[in-house]
Every structure is written in C-alpha cells, then in structure tokens.
Amino acid sequence: MGSTFNGLIGLIILALDIWAIVNVIKSNAESGIKILWILLIVLLPVIGLIIWALMGPRGGVKL
User: Fold this and answer.
1) DSSP state for residue 54 in the 8-state scheme
2) How far apart are CA 13 and CA 8, in angstroms?
3) Which distant-in-sequence residues (6+ apart) come within 8 Å of 16 by Cβ?
C-alpha cells in the first residue's frame, strides 16, 4: 500500500512539473529567465514548483 501511495504522489508531482515547464515555455519571459526557471523546476521538483507558483513568470499564460 505504501509503495502505491508513493508512486501516485510521484506521478502527481511529475505531472505538475511538466505543466509548470510548459507554462514557463509559453510565458513572455526572456529566454535566460525561462532556462533558469526550467532548471529550478527540474533540479528541485517540489520546492522548485512551489517557488515557481509563488514567483514565476505569468505574462501571457492562459489556463
């Protein structure tokens, strides 16, 4: 049961990270800033996602 729950949490985090990276790519931010955000999200999946959600580029992104 524990490994199934951990796998589900990992899958959710992966999906959210992919969603965040796609939104960073679609944003109006400069290329260098985009690369830094993507690196932060990839290297620190949970913390990077939280930081991006609070402070990331938002220009031109439609949900």
Assistant:
1) H
2) 9
3) 49
pTM, 2 dp: 0.83
- At 21-57, the pLDDT tens digits run 999 999 888 999 999 999 999 999 999 999 988 887 6
∠ Cα 32 38 43 (to 5°): 125
Sign of the alpha-carbon torsion through 40, 41, 42, 43: positive
The whole-angstrom separation of Cα 63 and Cα 43 is: 25
Q: 33, 29, 52: which is closest to 41 by C-alpha? A: 52
Query: Residue 35 is encoded by which pair of tokens?
Result: 């690369």
